[in-house]
Amino acid sequence: MLNRKDVLGLRDMSKEEILEILSVAKEMKQRIDHPHLRVDELRHTSIVTLFYENSTRTKTSFALAGKYLGATVQDLGIATSSVNKGESLIDTGKTLDQMGIEVMIMRNSLTGAPHVLARNVNAHVINAGDGSNEHPTQALLDLFTISEYKKSFEGLKVAIIGDISHSRVARSNVFGLQKLGADVTLAGPSTLLGSAQLLKVKTTSDIKEAVKDADVVMGLRIQFERQKTTNFPGIGEYRELFGINREILKYAKKDVLVMHPGPVNRGVELSTDVIDGGNSVINIQVKNGVAVRMAILKLLAKGGNQ
Amino acid sequence: MMKALLKGGRVINPATNTDAVMDLLVEDGKVTQWAEKIQEEADEVIDATGKWVVPGFIDVHVHLREPGFEYKETIRTGSQAAVMGGFTTICCMPNTEPVVDNEIMVEYIKLKADREGACHVLPIGAITKGQKGEELANIGQMVKAGACGISEDGKSVMNAGLLKTAMKYSKMFDIPVMSHCEDKSLVAGGVMNAGEQSTLLGLKGISNDSEDVMIARDIILARATGAKLHLCHVSTKGGIDLIRDAKSHGQEVSAEICPHHFTLSDRDVLDYDANTKMNPPLRSMDDVLALRQALKDDVVNIIATDHAPHSEDEKNCEYEKAAFGIVGLETAFTLGYTVLVKGDWLTPMQLVAKMSTNPAKLLGIEKGDISVGKAADITVIDPEKEYVIDAKNFASMGKNTPFDGWRVQGKVEYTLVDGKMKVKEGVLQ
C-alpha cells in the first residue's frame, strides 16, 4: 500500500515505496500481455487527465493503464476547456473534485503546479511532468525496466546524457536511483548541466568518461521547446560531441542497457543503429510505462491516504 | 490644542544620541518638552513605563498600488498598515498604473494621502517615462511637486548612458537615485535564489551575479557623476562587499536591507508556497549572515520593507506564475527586534536609527528626530510583548507574508503622526 495521497515526485518518496511500486508493476505487466488476466479492480474509480503540455505517449499510457484496470478515464482537453477562458488551476481542480473525480493526472509546464493542485483538491494527484522539476512515473518505469535486466541497483553505473538542466526525467531518475544505491553520472554540454552537481551526483562534459563501464546509458531528448536562449551552437556540434553512437558505447559494459524516454530526435541524441540495436530497451520502456502506471493507480486508488 | 503626555518611557532618539527614561510632552503636533518628570494636564496620558519612545519609523520603499491596482492596496489601507507597524512616513514607489513619471501623478498621490492617508506619504518618481528606460521622466517638475527621490523600481535602467544622464540631472535637486539592481538577461526567468534549494525544487534560479553586476555598475556611475545613490533591497554578500569597498574609498553609498532578507534564507522556500517569492529572492544563509553583519557594522544604514501587497489569487497559485513580493509594514519592527536586537546583531539605538533617523537623512527631511521643537511623529513600542503574527488581521489588504503564525517579540503600541494618535494600545484609530 502507498501511504500517501499524491505521487508528485521521487524526491519525497521512500525507497520502500519505490520498491513496492516496482513489485506491483511486475504483476501488472502480465495483465498487459494477457488480457484475460485483467481485473476491473478500479471500476468505481474515475480518473481525469489534464495535460497543459502536449504529450502523446504519457497521456495514452496513463489512459490505457486506467482502462486496463476498469476505471473511467476522461481527458480534459485543455485547449477546449475553460482553462482557455482563463480559469485558474485551483478552480479547475475544485470543479473536477465536485464532479467526483478521484484521480487527477496532470502535466504542466510550471514547476510545482501539481503540488499546488494537490493542496487544493481531495482527489489523488499524479504528476505526469511539471516544468523542469520531476516526471516521477517516467523514472519509475525506467527503474522498473532496469530491474528487469539487472540483478541489483546497488553500485549500478548509470550515465544520463543530454539536456540535463531542462530534464525532469533526469532529475526524477537521479532521486530514485540515489535512493536505490546506484552510481549516477550526468553528462552534457556545460551550459546544459545547470546546477546538477548540487544534486550530489557526478557531472561531466566528457561523454567517454560518463559512459565508461556504464551498466545503463540513458539519452535525453534535446528540449528545443524549453531552450529560451542558445545553449549550444547547433545540432551538428551536439551530435559530434554528445551523440551516443556505436563507437561511444564501446566504452560501456558489454551488456549495457540503452534507454531513452522518447520521443527521440533520431540521429541527434542517439544514432539510429543504437536506437534499433541489441542493447536498446526503448520499446520495452514504453510497455513498462503502462505497467508502472497501472501499479500506481491501483496502489493510490485502493489504498492511498485520502 | 491637543496635548499628549508620554510618561516614563525609554526615549531612544538617535539624532541626539539619547537613550534615557523620561517624560515627553506633545503639544499641537510638536514635541515641546523632555524632562525626567513632567507635571501637566494632558488630553492623552500614555503610560510608557517599560516601553520605548522612538521617532516614528520611515520606510523609503513601499508599494501603495494606487492608482491602478486598488484591489491589492490603497493609499488609505497601505498607510494604515504603516502606522500599525510604527511608521509615520512612507515613500511610495512609482510602479502604479499610470506610472508616476510626471508632476500630476505626484500631486494626485499627495492629494489622496492628505485626504485619506494615516501617515505622511512621499511619492518617488520614475527615472524614465513610463519606466520604459528610453527617455527621462519630468524629474525636476516631480521634485517641485513633492517627489522625494527617483527610482525605476522593479527594474534597472538597463541603458547605462541614460542612467548616467539621470544621475547627473538628479544632482540639481539633491534627491536620491534609488536603484533596483537586476540584470534581467542574467535572471533568465528565475523565480527563486539559484542554489541547492532551487536545484532540489526544480525551480529556475536567480543568481547573485544578476544583482551584483548592477550594484557594481551603479556604484561606478554614482562615483563618476557624484549622484546620491541609494541601493534598494540589497540581498547578496557580493553586493555588500561592493558597498563596503566603495565606502572604504570614501564614496557615499546608501543602501537598504529588507527584513525578509535578513530573517529568511532560500531554505525557507518550501512546498512551492509563493509567500516566499519576492525579488530579489531569499538568498543563501551565507548572504543572510553577510547582510546582518553589514547592518551591524553600519555598512548599510537603512532597513526598508519593500512592502508589496498582492491579492490572494496572485499568490495562491503556481509558484512560477505567482507575483513577486511580500507585505512588510506590519512585521518590519518586530522582525528587526526579534532577529537583530535579540540576536545581538544590533543595539536598540542602531535599529531605531536604521528605521527612522537614517532614512530621514537620506531623504533630507526634518524627521526621524523627536527632540524638542520637532514634529511629534512618535512610536511607542513594548519590547517585551510576545505575540503571534496573524496575517488576516493586517490593516494592509495584502496578506501575503511568510511570517504568518510566527511567534515574535516587540510590538508597536502607539503611533502618533504630527501628535495625532493613529494607533492606540495596538489598535488602529
What does this structure look like?
The complex is a heterodimer of chains A (306) and B (429). Chain A has eleven helices and nine strands. Chain A folds into two domains: 138 residues, Rossmann fold, CATH 3.40.50.1370; 148 residues, 3-Layer(aba) Sandwich (Rossmann fold), CATH 3.40.50. In chain A, strand 5, helix 6 and strand 6 form a beta-alpha-beta unit. In chain A, 39% of the residues lie in helices and 14% in strands. By secondary structure, chain B is an alpha/beta fold. Chain B folds into two domains: 106 residues, Urease, subunit C, domain 1 (Roll), CATH 2.30.40; 308 residues, TIM Barrel (Alpha-Beta Barrel). Chain B contains 13 helices and 19 strands. At the A-B interface, helix 4 of A face helix 6 of B.
Can you describe this structure in just a few lines?
The complex is a heterodimer of chains A (306) and B (429). Chain A is an alpha/beta fold.
Main pleated sheet of chain B: 9 strands, mixed
User: Quick one: CATH class of the largest domain in chain A?
Assistant: Alpha Beta
Q: Report the portion of residues of chain A in β strands.
A: 5-15%
Chain oligomer state: heterodimer
How many strand elements of chain B?
A: 19
Helical proportion of chain A, percent range: 25-40%
Q: Under CATH, the topology of the largest domain in chain B is which?
A: TIM Barrel
Largest interface: A-B, 26 and 22 residues
Into how many domains do the coordinates of chain A divide? 2
Radius of gyration of chain B: 20 Å
Rounded to the nearest angstrom, the distance between the terminal CA atoms of chain A is 13 Å
Q: From the alpha-carbon coordinates, what is the Rg of chain A to the nearest angstrom?
A: 19 Å
CATH superfamily of the largest domain in chain A: Aspartate/ornithine carbamoyltransferase
Q: How would you describe the shape of chain A? A: globular
Characterize the main sheet of chain A: 5 strands, parallel
The CATH topology name of the largest domain in chain A reads: Rossmann fold
Report the average pLDDT across residues of chain A: 93
| Total number of helices of chain A | 11
Termini gap of chain B: 19 Å
> What is the CATH architecture term of the largest domain in chain A?
3-Layer(aba) Sandwich
